[in-house]
Amino acid sequence: MSGLRVVRVEPTRSAGVLKELALASAGNGWIWLQPADGDGEPAVAASKLPDGPGIILAGGGSQGGRSLCLHPLAHLDHSAAATGRWLEACDIDPSQALVLNPLPLHHMSGLMPWWRSHLWGAEHVLLPLPLMRDPQRLLAHCRLIRDWDCRPMVVSLVPTQLRRLLAHDQGVCWLQRFAVVWVGGAALPKDLADHCRRLGVRLSPCYGATETAAMVAALSPEQFLAGESGCGAPLDDVELCLDATGALMVRTARLAIGRWCEGGLQPLTDADGWWCSGDAAILRCNADGFRQLRIQGRLDGAIHSGGETVFPEQLAQRLLIDAHKRQLPLEAVLFLPVEQVEWGQRLVALVRCHEGVATEPDWPSLQLELQQLSRHWRPAERPIAWHQCQELEPTAAGKWQQSRWQAWLRLQECAQLNVQK
């Protein structure tokens, strides 16, 4: 029987969490990293856990279904080693890197920067999440870090953080200091990619998951700056393929050993060791003959409307790009499906705009302009309703909590019905 240690990740005590994690990882049991508000997680029975040592983390999927991934600690070592070899191929010595980490530790994306630095012998620096909203304070804070700008620096961001940084001169200055800026967790909008290329920001769009112990494919900064798109080639310990539906399949020795759901531990892979990601993808060879990965969107997030398959994530990115081209004050948008008898499903738009237009009469004007931007879309793609939602925001790991925003939408619709009565 394995032991189980629960470590609550309080945002104000991240350094203490890392000390606890370092001590716990020297044992033989399982470490469960939970968010501070970890209520609602499936109950884990320590008596039914396999032998440790290992780590338990909530999956980062965006479509609901609370589950936990179980990784032996050796899987994290394998992942960190593969990422280190990827850096070496980019002429960066991992042991000399300065690893900055602005992501939450109870997510794989926030845990792995520390784990990598531990394995590589590199220096790791935690960045408090509030700093990422204040580029001026962020730059001033980082300039006080020992060896800042004196060694190759790497950081992992989600697109929301990247967009905020690019909106300020100090944020741009901060980004331009890095040898590698891995960006993942959600699709990289084309306007952000183009902006970073113009500024010479060394982005590395990447793909990974909690189930794969983080990154399994990445585009090098040189490829990115040369104009290539997508998530690059698989890391050297990973195999990729597509199933009959176009879903990305991953096979690697560092896949989670299973998911813990309400009913207990469930297998993750098929009989041949392949895990189905649920992401629609394309695998193509580039000019050098290397297979390159491009993610199309979540298959389980797609809707079927009027006989057509529609990817809401792609439409949201399309609207954001068009809105920013017209300098409209749009900050975030999320398309949610609603049931409709005639069409099967239709889309409803939740919108967060700049604070200055969050009140009447500016919101109706912005709503009309957004409707005009989408009027040339296919009928199945056009939202049938628009709702202003100033609290709309993804999680710190860049994921949309679909169930939360569906509940928000239901409350709005109920309120509107009551007003009409």
Any key phrases for this structure?
421 residues, alpha/beta, Rossmann fold, GMP Synthetase, Chain A, domain 3, seven-stranded mixed beta sheet, 22 strands, globular
Structure in words:
The chain is of the alpha/beta class. A seven-stranded mixed β-sheet has the order 6-5-7-8-9-10-11, sandwiched between helices. It contains eleven helices and 22 strands. The radius of gyration is 22 Å and the shape is globular. Helix 2 packs across helix 3 and helix 4 packs across helix 6. The chain folds into two domains: 217 residues, Rossmann fold (3-Layer(aba) Sandwich), CATH 3.40.50; 118 residues, 2-Layer Sandwich (GMP Synthetase, Chain A, domain 3), CATH 3.30.300.30. The longest helix has 19 residues. Helix 7 links the parallel strand 8 and strand 9. The termini are far apart.
Brief digest:
The chain is of the alpha/beta class. Helix content is 30%, strand content 29%.
Sequence-ordered SSE layout with sheet pairings:
Elements: E1 4-9, H1 14-24, E2 30-35, E3 54-58, E4 68-72, H2 73-89, E5 98-101, H3 108-120, E6 123-126, H4 135-142, E7 153-157, H5 159-166, H6 169-175, E8 180-183, H7 190-199, E9 203-209, E10 214-218, H8 221-225, E11 233-234, E12 238-242, E13 247-252, E14 258-261, E15 264-266, E16 275-285, E17 291-298, E18 303-305, E19 308-310, H9 312-325, E20 330-340, E21 344-353, H10 362-374, E22 385-388, H11 402-420
Parallel strand pairs: 1-2, 2-3, 5-6, 5-7, 7-8, 8-9, 21-22
Antiparallel strand pairs: 3-4, 4-14, 9-10, 10-11, 12-13, 13-16, 14-15, 16-17, 18-19, 20-21
Helix pairs in contact: 2-3, 4-6
